[in-house]
User: What shape does this take?
Amino acid sequence: MSLLLCLGDIDPVNWRKAFKAALPDHVDVVTRDDADFDPSAVRYMYVWKPAADAFDGLDNLEVIFSLGAGVDPIVAHPKLPRNVPLSRFVDEDLTTRMTDYVVAQVTLHQRQTTYYMALQKAREWVQYYPPAANECRVGIMGLGALGADAAEKLVGLGFTVLGWSRNHKDLPGVESFAGPGQLDAFLSKTDILVCLLPLTEDTRGMLDYELFTKLRRDGLKTGPVVVNAARGGHLIEKDLVRALEDGTLGAASLDVFEVEPLPGDSPLWAIENCLITPHIAAISSVHRGVRFVVDGIARHEAGEPLENLVDLDVGY
Amino acid sequence: MSLLLCLGDIDPVNWRKAFKAALPDHVDVVTRDDADFDPSAVRYMYVWKPAADAFDGLDNLEVIFSLGAGVDPIVAHPKLPRNVPLSRFVDEDLTTRMTDYVVAQVTLHQRQTTYYMALQKAREWVQYYPPAANECRVGIMGLGALGADAAEKLVGLGFTVLGWSRNHKDLPGVESFAGPGQLDAFLSKTDILVCLLPLTEDTRGMLDYELFTKLRRDGLKTGPVVVNAARGGHLIEKDLVRALEDGTLGAASLDVFEVEPLPGDSPLWAIENCLITPHIAAISSVHRGVRFVVDGIARHEAGEPLENLVDLDVGY
Assistant: This one.
């Protein structure tokens, strides 16, 4: 039997080596490019951005493991075998790296860094004092493992933290809002909006111009800020460009985009109060990813329940 | 008897109003510009950057209160009456604002933000993954109220935190180094250096080219980083410019300068990996400053000890 690596644009060389060293002897590690690839021998699959033929011929597949915490490209795949359990990688290391990104962007915008960068460019000395953390409200959309950890760290730094999610969540120090009915109330209290939502049919394109107009306007000198560390599909990029240009938004940080790599002619590159990073907020390390799959296979073979099973109907 | 406001370049109007409302009836609030100013009536003084004549004729002065936590301009004044107790403002609000600044700069540099800003300008998509907080070492020079609070918050975010101070300090999760003999060992383990030292004869000009060469070189992709939130006098600016130009340093954040406002022709303005803010890291609020002085006067009149007394021989 075998574990099929299906890693999209990620080079599988290091992963293959690490899996070979860690898997039990009765499980081979294979890719579709192998000369002797036998789809019927595949029992397990490790997936990142599946290609069109990713699931073809896998008649004996028992478990799909997702390399990322976001499973939207897998759930949306038309040939996904929906009767096979899908377990997603929710890893402490990935979570803390995402929180690192969120804390860095939130504190950067709380301190109004893009405002001072513009002053620096103009060689102007203007002693504006930014708000303290406790005078600044951070609204986190999505309170799963990533959102909850970011919220905890931001509460620890003294920020006023609000959360919005599908269902009400009870997190220490976080004012919780749930569902479409409480979205506007959540937005009206938010200075810095952080998107950590799963990408589903309900959340696709949520971050649009109308939503931006509902954020709190009298909090930050620059105006409200959007940080998107979830998926490019959450954000309507042309709406963000418009909102940054007309002052509806004061600044933004984007790690993910509608098309990746971000095309060279995107207007986003040139907007100085829109900080762009190339989808590097958090990465699944080879070491931890291998352990996740090897542990999952052992659990499965021992008849134990798998961790972080995806509900295909809700999409995460 | 009176409290003399001596606030340098700060407009005293709001302070005067707030003091009038808060002081007991037997203490007037005065400035040297008042038509009926009587130096012999002055018992208390509230000082920020004292002018040359600040202390002239104050023969009945009993306590000097410093508006800032840094008392170097007062201690260095040639006419300071050295037998009068000097109490400096160490305030929780000022401390948390300073920590806000430090956390924002440290996380910004840990996430290698100036590197991505350069990529963005060039419209380049390079998926470099920055180190996690626990892979990044922050060295704090100065472990007084400000340094200790910043260290605590950075430990909470998972950073490896080192501290250097005149005497050994015992802070949870912080590796402590003390005195000139342990400075090189401290620097060799530091990726991001944060200066929160008091400005004294021992610390003036400490941040020079030679010191920059001793920082850890294999930690951050950009190379080591310097954050100065203490006093402009700690840093030799031409050495910083040289170190940023030749790659000895990867980036810097400066809130304070040798001359303030920073002159329009300073080369610092144009260095894109040197983030400049106009001495706004932390401010003493009128409300808190007034409470500090009013409480101090009440303590003094009740014969109780004053808080945060400065030792003029060590300079803080």
In short: The CA atoms of residues 296 and 306 of chain A lie 6 Å apart. Residues 92-110 of chain A form the longest helix (19 residues).
